[in-house]
Automatic annotation (TrEMBL):
InterPro entries: UDP_GlcNAc_Epimerase_2_dom, WecB-like. The lineage of its organism: Bacteria, Bacillati, Bacillota, Bacilli, Lactobacillales. This is UDP-N-acetylglucosamine 2-epimerase (non-hydrolyzing). It comes from Lactococcus taiwanensis. The keyword Isomerase applies. It is an enzyme of class 5 (isomerase). CDD domains: GTB_UDP-GlcNAc_2-Epimerase. Its EC number is 5.1.3.14. Pfam families: Epimerase_2. Residues 25-359 form the UDP-N-acetylglucosamine 2-epimerase domain.
């Protein structure tokens, strides 16, 4: 068995690495969990809920959300840990500051690196920013590439990665549903929704911060137009820039702005949504599994499989387009049905098993 070090710093990394941590422990590997602490509030409740105790918490405390500060602080926090623990393999996920810093520290210490959710690309270096180059750089550093789909494997091959180190394994976001979905689930947001249909909103991307007025104006117009039939639930990211604008622009009786939900709550609330408007990456995959159409509040996506499958549609950030596309789905049953219940291209929830089969040989 091996000594495996899992490094993560944000909510989605933990959500998608948790099934791997469980599987690695089940097989008797020595697991070392490192939380960089970047999402201190959004992660601490998750760790408690899923009973994961980090062996190390870097508590990256930021006065600002300056990317250089976050990456520099993470690298200098991780380096002594890797030197002390000397793992056989470091696993990082996706495209955040922790992914990049973890990848670099693995390389500097000549420790093997596995990249989970490898090969997602827009090839537009500022969209999403800074995630596109984070994942490209980690792609250069990694020894093992766990690609969720055939499309992502092709991206890696095009970039010259060795085929024998690329494994198509699905996305562990789907594995996570085994730990979260509950029958007879109750939540305040669902009681508030009552007999109306629900539109679920999330937004957090850095490159969208300047467009939030447009996005929120569109959501306001939709709330007004569909007030007899729909309620809008918006679990809002802890970024103060987003919260301030939302508080100012989204005061409608049929919009409920709530704190970020625990993932168990988020998944169970999400499955009741009729439609999702989001700029999130992970939610695009999860909604495909639940058969819920997603309008993606971005101009690019690294998840073209969802667009091809028909569950995702890119609508950008202009008010007119968001309203037009939402109205189309809410009023045209055929257009809605065409997007709902499509086949999920992100696997069958066995990603963690596949990855650990490969790692443990
Ligand atoms: C980060 C990742 C992004 C990922 C996203 C998932 C980087 C550079 N960005 O973006 O790739 O898609 O997480 O959600 O790694 N905040 C808190 N408490 C928290 C979390 C955030 O107060 O628990 C606030 C802080 O003011 C912080 C701001 O939110 O400065 C932004 O957080 P940050 O981690 O820098 O970026 P995200 O937009 O969350
Ligand atoms: N999520 C959550 N609570 C929320 C909103 C989202 O647990 O209030 C989960 C969601 O199910 C998904 C992940 O967080 O697994 C997505 O995170 P985010 O949108 O922050 O990041 P991205 O996927 O865009 O990197």
């Amino acid at each position: 068995m091996k000594k495996l070090m899992f490094i993560f710093g944000t909510r989605p990394e933990f959500i998608k690495l948790f099934p791997l941590i469980k599987e690695a422990e089940k097989r008797g590997n020595k697991v070392v969990v490192v939380n960089t602490g970047q999402h201190r509030e959004m992660l601490s409740t998750l760790l408690t809920h899923f009973k994961v105790e980090a062996d190390y918490d870097l508590k990256i405390m930021r006065q600002s959300s300056n990317l250089s500060d976050i990456v520099a602080g993470t690298i200098s926090g991780l380096d002594p840990i890797v030197k002390t623990e000397k793992p056989d393999l470091i696993l990082v996920h996706g495209d955040t500051a922790a992914t990049l810093a973890g990848g670099l520290v693995a390389y500097f210490n000549q420790v093997q690196l596995a990249h989970v959710e490898a090969g997602l690309r827009t090839y537009n270096k500022y969209s999403p920013f800074p995630e596109e180059l984070n994942r490209q750089m980690v792609g250069v550093l990694a020894d093992l590439h766990f690609a969720p789909t055939a499309v992502t494997k092709q991206n890696l091959l095009k970039e010259g990665k060795d085929e024998e180190n690329i494994f198509v394994v699905g996305n562990s976001a789907i594995d996570m549903f085994q730990y979260t979905l509950q029958d007879n689930y109750q939540h305040e947001a669902l009681s508030w929704q009552a007999d109306k249909a629900m539109i679920l909103i999330t937004a957090h991307r850095r490159e969208n911060l300047e467009d939030l007025e447009q996005i929120f104006a569109a959501i306001g117009e939709i709330a007004d137009e569909f007030k007899e039939t729909h309620k809008i639930v918006y679990p809002i990211h802890l970024n103060p820039l987003i919260r301030e604008k939302a508080k100012k622009l989204l005061s409608y009786t049929n919009i409920k702005i709530i704190d970020p939900l625990e993932t168990v709550d988020f998944h169970n609330v999400m499955r009741h949504a009729q439609l999702i408007l989001t700029d999130s990456g992970g939610i695009q995959e999860e909604a495909a599994h639940l058969g819920i159409p997603v309008l993606v509040l971005r101009d690019t996506t690294e998840r073209p499989e969802g667009v091809t499958a028909g569950t995702l549609r890119l609508v950008g950030t202009s008010k007119a387009n968001i309203v037009k596309e939402t109205r189309r789905l809410l009023t045209d049953k055929k257009a809605y049905e065409e997007m709902a219940n499509k086949e999920n291209p992100y696997g069958d929830g066995t990603t963690a098993i596949k990855i650990m089969d490969i790692i443990n040989g």
